[in-house]
């Protein structure tokens, strides 16, 4: 009652009590949800410190249990972190890494949760009181370890392969013609010769090779081997009789000659003397040398020493200048010094070119120096050849009784243009007679034709110059053009009055197309594809071919002719095996053309070979003879020089390329010209050599076997083209031999690096060279095991650059070296080296860390 | 007129007042009170980090001694240098307050390894002012370093 009465008047008390209760409830709820005491987790750098400590401390600094399973795998120089990583990577499936870290960190007194991860997903070690999986907060520090990657090696090998810098290839060249007898050459080198020597040459007969007076072997001559075709043979012979210094190489046989060739050796040592000296070959028999030498720079001095023995007139010509001509019999040692030579020869004209050199005998009776020539000049005296007076004043001519058409002076008086082809033809014939009859055993015959051959216009074969010229003066021009008439007439006369042992030839001239047939030939088939068969042109061509079939060589001259006329004259000479020459001529140079034709005929029948008709003649040129040069030239290149050979693609044409990482040093074009002369050599359409610049018959000039250049006309990193022409006279330029080659020296990198590889084992190598020869060798020396090959895979069962294991540093380095030396990337090494020559040095670097890497993480976590 | 409900105005005011006072008291007491301790903790933690970072450095100059020290550091090539450790010990004994000023801290510190260390042939428990155990606020900072070619924990107690 009192309580109730107490509260009856005080109802607000209940509200206040409710408020207090409610407040209490709220406070309790808040306190439960928001404790007064917050536990604040302090930050920690323990994980960073652990990572740093593992990175600083090295294996060799830590006292480890030597009896542990991994102890032998430890490397002192590695940091604990690197060692841990390597143990993990290289020993999968073991606990080596964990045990190693545990040995180091188990004694670490810390209450922190820490762990070490490899990469981001592999726990290696942990020291923790609460599980990581339920961690509320994780701190991570990382460090990259290079050279470490799960599943990979940590270190590897590198190798470098290179050719021995003193490995050299030297060539000794013979001239375009070296004869006639036993032939020798001086082979000089400074070092140790390796492998066999190579002789490539055209040698007429079977021969023996002697080295330093010791017989090496017997060899078959190239002409007999190839049925008289001019084709070189490559011979290999032992170098066991060679020695450091000067060696004498001899070819002995029956009246030998070498029509171009070289000797090649490989040796290890110092570079040769280079091109400052020309060495004469030794010749025992009849001195008969056609050769050349190269002057690369500005010639400042030249000195010649000739040691020979001869009872005959012996001469030496350089270019078109005779520098020595002596009849003094017996052994001679002739010294031609610079002061004498510089007075005779314009040295400037020799600069930068190949100069022909000729050494021979005169006044010696020998067959072959010239053979008797019987040649008919068949001349067009048709109406078109008649004198003409064009544009003349008619009244003037009338006043002069129309003599303006027969008299040049009258014609010109009456303002006419006088032309007289017949007079030009007469002058040319007279010149021709003089050239041919310069050799007394030769004879000339004359046939002049119109629509027939007037008997009074012919002259039998004769060496009577006056009689022949008198006949020429009697010719008048009139009538048609029966070319076949002239050829048939000349052929008949040759058959009647010329011996088949003589060289027989016909020179046919016409100023127009044939327009008369020869009934004696019957119906002639189509010979030129024009106008059907049995045309006048067909008859002319047929007559020429008939003459060729009888051993008569046709040469033709087109006198201001074109179209069908030229075509006919050209077809008349393009007959195998005669293969005469065609020449275009005008009135102003007709005589010169006839001179060239005469040269051609004379050269064809004046072969380079000498055969004594007096029995045994002894002359000797000693190989101590030489020419020394001094010239300003660029500094010798430093580095490894590689000499390469490239055969011609076809007759007279060749190509070669200089790789982009190589520098051309010197390039030689060797030409097998046979009985002809190498007349012109072009490189990238630039004239390297032109025999015609000497303006004398080729018979007076040397015949260089090698034409050399060091000029910038050689284009690096592109294909260079070479053209070689040969001929017997200035008017003849035919494509040279298909067996020619280009021998060029480049400065080239010849080092290959393997990069990091897993191992360095080696290989037994089979290598194919550019000449399709093979060689076997072992790198490193004495290695047995894996087989490797660098070959053209189309030829051999191996692939191109195939190696067994791409992770072998030796194999990769050697393979890449061969790729460097395979300039045209055809799977064949371009540097010709025999197996015993090849010297590949391989340097090995071990312990190279690989460039892959991984991260090590140290994590700290809190619950 | 008969009024059966509670007195509306006055009681309501009392009730609201009680709630407000209670909440305000709770706010200041329950929230602010811990902020203060947290602030103290953070201060101690901060100074602990300062001291530990300094100790786990090379110091300045790199080859410092008791006469030229600018900043106390114990490491050389990432490892505890015993010479520097001895210098630190000597300095803490001879002029403890100087070490505090070099560390740029106001609180007291005591550094010790997980085992006693040897300094000058003596076994030393730690370096600095050893706490008595009655400290109200004491923060412990743990670091790790290479000492004597082994990885050891280094503890640092910081208190007011």
Task: Explain the overall architecture.
The complex is a heterodimer of chains A (863) and B (160). With 863 residues, chain A is α+β, with helices and mostly antiparallel strands. Chain A has 16 helices and 45 strands. In chain A, the strands form 9 sheets. Chain A has a 16-stranded antiparallel β-sheet that branches. Chain A has a 6-stranded mixed β-sheet with strand order 24-23-20-25-26-27, with helices on both faces. In chain A, strand 23 (443-449) and strand 24 (458-462) form a beta hairpin. In chain A, helix 10 (421-436) packs antiparallel against helix 11 (465-473) and helix 12 runs parallel beside helix 13. Chain A starts with a helix and ends with a strand. Chain B has 3 helices and 8 strands. In chain B, a hairpin with a 2-residue loop joins strand 4 (117-119) and strand 5. The model of chain B has no long low-confidence stretch (mean pLDDT 85). Helix content of chain B is 43%, strand content 24%. In chain B, helix 2 packs across helix 3. Chain B is of the alpha+beta class and 160 residues long. The A-B interface holds A 11-16, 18-20, 22-23, 26-27, 30-31, 34, 36-38, 40, 42-46, 49-50, 52-57, 61-63, 104-105, 107-112 and B 5-7, 10-12, 14-16, 18-19, 22-23, 26, 30, 33-34, 38, 41-42, 45, 48-49, 52, 56, 77-79, 114, 139, 141-146, 149-153.
How do you describe this structure in short?
The complex is a heterodimer of chains A (863) and B (160). With 863 residues, chain A is α+β, with helices and mostly antiparallel strands.
Question: Of all protein chain pairs, which has the greatest interface, and how many residues does each chain bring to it?
Answer: A-B, 44 and 41 residues
Give the beta-strand count of chain A.
45
The count of β-strands of chain B is: 8
What best-fitting shape of chain A do the alpha-carbon axes yield?
A: elongated
- Give the uncertain stretches of chain B in residue-range form: none
State the shape of chain B.
elongated
Q: With helices defined by DSSP (H or I, 4 residues minimum), what is the helix count of chain B?
A: 3
Gyration radius of chain B, rounded: 26 Å
Main beta-sheet strand count, sense and barrel state of chain A: 16 strands, antiparallel
């Amino acid at each position: 009652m009192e309580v109730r009465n107490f509260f009856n008047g005080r109802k607000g008390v209940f509200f206040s009590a409710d408020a207090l209760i409610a407040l209490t409830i709220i406070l309790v709820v808040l306190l439960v949800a928001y404790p007064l005491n917050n536990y604040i987790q302090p930050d920690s750098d323990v994980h960073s410190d652990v990572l740093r400590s593992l990175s600083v401390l090295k294996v060799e600094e830590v006292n480890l249990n030597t009896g542990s399973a991994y102890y032998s795998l430890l490397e002192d120089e590695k940091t604990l972190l690197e060692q841990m990583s390597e143990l993990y990577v290289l020993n999968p499936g073991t606990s080596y890494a964990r045990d190693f870290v545990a040995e180091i960190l188990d004694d670490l007194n810390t209450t922190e949760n820490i762990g070490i991860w490899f990469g981001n997903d592999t726990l290696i070690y942990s020291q923790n009181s609460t599980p990581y999986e339920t961690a509320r907060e994780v701190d991570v520090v990382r460090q990259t370890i290079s050279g470490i990657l799960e599943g990979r090696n940590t270190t590897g090998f590198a190798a470098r392969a290179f050719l021995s810098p003193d490995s050299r290839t030297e060539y000794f060249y013979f001239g375009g013609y070296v004869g006639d007898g036993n032939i020798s050459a001086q082979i000089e080198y400074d070092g140790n010769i390796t492998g066999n020597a190579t002789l490539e040459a055209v040698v007429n007969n079977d021969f023996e090779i002697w080295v330093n007076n010791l017989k090496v072997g017997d060899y078959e001559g190239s002409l007999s081997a190839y049925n008289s075709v001019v084709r070189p043979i490559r011979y290999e012979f032992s170098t066991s009789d060679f020695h450091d210094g000067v060696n004498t190489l001899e070819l002995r046989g029956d009246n030998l000659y070498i029509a171009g060739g070289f000797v090649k050796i490989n040796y290890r040592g110092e570079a040769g003397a280079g091109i400052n000296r020309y060495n004469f070959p030794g010749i025992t028999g009849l001195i008969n040398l056609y050769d050349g030498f190269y002057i690369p720079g500005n010639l400042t001095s030249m000195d010649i020493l000739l040691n020979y023995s001869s009872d005959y007139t012996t001469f030496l010509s350089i270019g078109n200048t005779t520098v020595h001509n002596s009849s003094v019999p017996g052994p001679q040692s002739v010294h031609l010094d610079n002061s004498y030579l510089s007075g005779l020869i314009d040295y400037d004209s020799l600069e930068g070119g190949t100069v022909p050199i000729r050494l021979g005998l005169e006044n010696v009776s020998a067959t072959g120096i010239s053979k008797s020539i019987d040649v008919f000049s068949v001349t067009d005296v048709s109406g078109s050849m008649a004198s003409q007076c064009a544009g003349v004043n008619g009244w003037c001519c009338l006043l002069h009784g129309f003599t303006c058409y027969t008299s040049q002076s009258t014609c010109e008086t009456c303002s006419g243009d006088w032309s007289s082809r017949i007079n030009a033809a007469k002058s040319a014939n007279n010149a021709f007679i003089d050239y041919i009859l310069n050799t007394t055993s030769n004879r000339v015959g004359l046939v002049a034709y119109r629509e027939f051959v007037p008997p009074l216009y012919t002259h039998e074969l004769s060496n009577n110059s006056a009689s022949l010229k008198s006949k020429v003066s009697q010719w008048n021009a009139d009538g048609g053009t029966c070319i076949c008439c002239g050829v048939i007439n000349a052929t008949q006369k040759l058959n009647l009055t010329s011996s088949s042992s003589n060289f027989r030839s016909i020179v046919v001239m016409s100023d127009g197309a044939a327009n008369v047939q020869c009934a004696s030939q019957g119906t002639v088939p189509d010979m030129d594809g024009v106008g059907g068969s049995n045309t006048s042109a067909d008859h002319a061509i047929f007559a020429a071919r008939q003459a060729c079939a009888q051993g008569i060589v046709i040469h033709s001259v087109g006198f201001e002719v074109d179209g069908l006329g030229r075509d006919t004259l050209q077809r008349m000479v393009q007959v195998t095996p005669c293969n005469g020459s065609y020449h275009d001529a005008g009135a102003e140079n007709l005589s010169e053309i006839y001179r060239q034709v005469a040269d051609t005929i004379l050269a064809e029948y004046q072969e380079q070979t000498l055969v004594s008709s007096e029995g045994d003649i002894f002359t000797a040129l000693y190989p101590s003879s030489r020419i020394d040069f001094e010239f300003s030239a660029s500094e010798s290149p430093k580095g490894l020089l590689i000499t390469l050979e490239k055969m011609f693609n076809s007759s007279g044409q060749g190509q070669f390329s200089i790789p982009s990482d190589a520098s051309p040093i010197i390039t030689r074009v060797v030409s097998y010209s046979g009985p002809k002369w190498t007349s012109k050599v072009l490189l990238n359409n630039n004239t390297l050599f032109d025999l015609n610049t000497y303006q004398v018959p080729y018979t007076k000039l040397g015949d260089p076997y090698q034409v050399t250049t060091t000029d910038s006309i050689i284009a690096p990193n592109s294909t260079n083209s070479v053209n070689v022409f040969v001929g017997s006279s200035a008017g003849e330029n035919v494509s040279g031999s298909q067996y020619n080659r280009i021998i060029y020296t480049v400065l080239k990198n010849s080092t290959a690096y393997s990069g990091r590889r897993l191992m360095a084992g080696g290989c037994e190598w089979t290598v194919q060279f550019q000449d399709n020869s093979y060689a076997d060798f072992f790198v490193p020396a004495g290695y047995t095991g894996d087989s490797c090959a660098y070959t053209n895979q189309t030829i051999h069962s191996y692939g191109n650059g195939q190696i067994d294991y791409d992770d072998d540093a030796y194999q990769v380095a050697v393979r890449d070296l061969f790729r460097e030396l395979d300039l045209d990337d055809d799977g064949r090494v371009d540097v010709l080296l025999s197996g015993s020559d090849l010297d590949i040095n391989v340097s090995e670097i071990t312990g190279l860390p690989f460039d892959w890497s991984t991260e090590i993480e140290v994590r700290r976590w809190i619950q | 007129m008969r009024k059966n409900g509670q007195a509306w105005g006055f009681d309501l005011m009392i009730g609201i007042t009680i709630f407000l006072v209670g909440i305000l008291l709770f706010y200041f007491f329950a929230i602010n009170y811990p902020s203060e301790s947290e602030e103290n903790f953070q201060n101690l933690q901060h100074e602990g980090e300062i001291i530990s970072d300094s100790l786990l450095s090379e110091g300045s100059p790199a080859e410092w001694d008791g006469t030229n020290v600018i900043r106390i550091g114990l490491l050389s090539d990432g490892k505890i240098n015993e010479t520097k450790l001895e210098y630190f010990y000597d300095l803490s004994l001879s002029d403890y307050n100087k070490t505090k000023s070099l560390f740029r801290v106001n609180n007291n510190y005591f550094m010790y390894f997980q085992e006693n260390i040897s300094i000058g042939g003596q076994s030393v428990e730690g370096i600095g002012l050893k706490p008595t155990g009655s400290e109200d606020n004491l923060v412990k900072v743990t670091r790790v370093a290479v000492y004597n070619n082994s990885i050891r924990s280094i503890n640092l107690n910081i208190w007011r």
